[in-house]
Amino acid sequence: MKKITIDTLLINEHALRDFVETTFPTLVGDEVLIYFLLARKKYCNDINLKIKTVKPFISYFNFNDVDTIMRRLKRTSLIGDFYVDKDGTVIPPRACALYVNLTPKSVMMGYNDFVKHHNDIAYTIMNKGIDLTTNESDTSNVIDKKIREFTRMKVNIFSSVHKSTKRKPYYLVDIDEKDEDMLEKVLDMLNRDFFWVSETRGGYHVLVKKGKQSGGKVWIDVRNYNTELKTKRKLTKNDADIIEIKSDVTTPAVGTLQGGFEVKRLHV
Q1: Do 73 and 12 share a structural domain?
Q2: Below-50 pLDDT ranges, the chain
């Protein structure tokens, strides 16, 4: 008999609770926060996974109770042989990370987008493959694709909700490199006016409350710093920026493993 093993991404429950209590905005009305598991091939290159990036599980919070949120996150962090890639290879825990989007989304706005999208698909199917987006007909191809898309309702509703931002209480400064001097320079650009710093697998995530900083000035400072870094390293403009400012805040949950690395809060 095969022995069942259950692994968890959660290794520091106290740190996770601190993260939830400090960073989760209070939800009102139809607002929700999305959370999901993310599996990435780059986290475990020794395994021949077919996927590059995939979200094997996605859900949302529509409540503010910390204990209930903690139970949901603890349950989601359980990784056994539950998830596989396209050819059936089991996705191991060290390929996974637990992420939370801290930008409240509107269920009603998402629902309206979902209904419109699915009505368009249904129209295409019922009208023998006339694609509304191209006004072209290809019965042998379009209908099959649209039927497959129509049956992916759960994926599509989450996609619609994810796009339906209600408000943006924070912005995220994403430093894609482990360099403490670089982190200190960025914090100085923010006049040390931030409320959370996480050390992630690849760098740092700095959370700033909207209205605390002159967003335009910070953007300019970061852009100039990126240009300076690229010049020193002889990189081109087309190379990815080392530091990014994002208004849609997605970050790995502190106290959990991100590709085998423990995500931690930094008190700086």
Answers
A1: yes
A2: none
